[in-house]
Design a protein that fits this description.
By secondary structure, the chain is α/β, with parallel strands linked by helices. It has 2 domains: about 210 residues, no CATH class; about 70 residues, no CATH class. The protein is built from 8 helices and 6 strands; from the N terminus they run E-H-H-E-H-H-H-H-H-H-E-E-E-E. The strands form 2 sheets. It has a 4-stranded mixed β-sheet, with no helix packed on it. A two-stranded parallel sheet has the order 1-2.
């Protein structure tokens, strides 16, 4: 990390080392300004700025050295959180950064009389804890986002494997695993010095996160990815049904009626017509013929004259083999 690098968190004004050093004589008043932390990104992290001022000495120099050592680690936390990257075991990482800041403070203040830099040490720890807590809150939010994405992928994968909506018991089981995983991640991120009041607020935030994850699994079928899976299942079911109907033997029947009218005459008039009658989904074929040959004996049937009117029903059988 480069010493002197500045980066602001949120919109609050930044607290500089110069301000911290000048405030060392304020005692408890500085603790009220630096020792408390605010939730979220409303806090500001200290900045190490190069300014035209006398070089600090003694306890003030020790404070500057401690803040500078911590700033090198803190800048990496801000970059990781801004890039959406979880810091593994942030609790241990932050503890190591705090110890490094204290070591730099002690090395610089080792020539001072014992107990003379107590206020500066107090100020250093207040600044370190304030900015560590801000980074923890950013990491906790990333942890919930990571678990939400993981739960969504797990639910969708289960739906793909089943080819249908998941059972309630399956979804509840996945939700329980996601909540346990979230709590485990937050425990690894939590600083060891977390005060009781902050721990109580975190317990409430755990419950809120669990409710948000529960709402996610409840609405997974209504999400864009869930609706896309439902459409794919419907399409596949339709194709499967069409495939079943496309194979085998099919038989259909088409009714028909043949009508013949034969008035008197020698057969010089011949009229034939064909058409369908009945509903569109089940039509019947009708054939009508008119032939004026009634004056000619019907030798085939041994009648002196043919019948004037003849009607013959018929059925057309359609056989399809696929």
């Amino acid at each position: 990390m480069r010493q002197g690098k500045t980066a602001a968190v949120g919109r609050a004004p930044a607290l500089t080392v110069r301000t911290a050093v000048a405030a060392c004589g304020l005692g408890i008043g500085l603790w009220a300004g630096c020792g408390r932390w605010l939730p979220g990104t409303a806090q500001a992290r200290p900045q190490v700025q190069t300014q035209d001022q006398p070089k600090p000495r003694g306890c003030q120099a020790a404070l500057v050295a401690g803040v500078s050592a911590f700033e090198e680690e803190h800048a990496g936390w801000i970059e990781a959180s801004g890039g959406g990257q979880l810091i593994s075991n942030f609790g241990k990482v932050s503890a190591a950064a705090e110890q490094e800041a204290l070591n730099s403070f002690i090395r610089t203040a080792e020539n001072e009389e014992a107990g003379t830099c107590t206020q500066q040490r107090f100020t250093l720890l207040a600044l370190v804890h304030q900015q560590t807590w801000t980074s923890f809150l950013a990491q906790r939010k990333l942890a919930e986002e990571y678990i939400s994405q993981s739960l969504t992928e797990r639910l969708l994968q289960g739906m793909k494997h089943r080819g249908a909506r998941l059972r309630v018991q399956e979804k509840v089981g996945m939700l329980r695993e996601a909540v346990d995983e979230y709590k485990g991640l937050v425990d690894n991120l939590l600083p060891s010095w977390t005060p009781d009041e902050a721990a109580s607020n975190l317990a409430m935030e755990h419950d809120e996160a669990a409710r948000r994850l529960g709402a996610l699994q409840f609405r997974i079928e209504d999400s864009g990815a869930g609706q896309a899976l439902a459409s794919a299942w419907e399409r596949k079911n339709g194709e499967r049904a069409m495939g079943k109907r496309a194979h085998g033997l099919s038989v259909s029947f088409d009714p028909a009626l043949h009508v013949m009218i034969r008035p008197e005459g020698l057969g010089n008039l011949q009229v034939f017509s064909s058409g369908t009658v009945g509903p569109p989904n089940s039509p019947a074929q009708v054939d009508i013929g008119i032939l004026n040959d009634g004056s000619i004996a019907d030798v085939y049937r041994e009648h002196p004259v043919p019948a004037l009117f003849a009607m013959q029903p018929a059925v057309k059988v359609n056989v399809n083999l696929r």
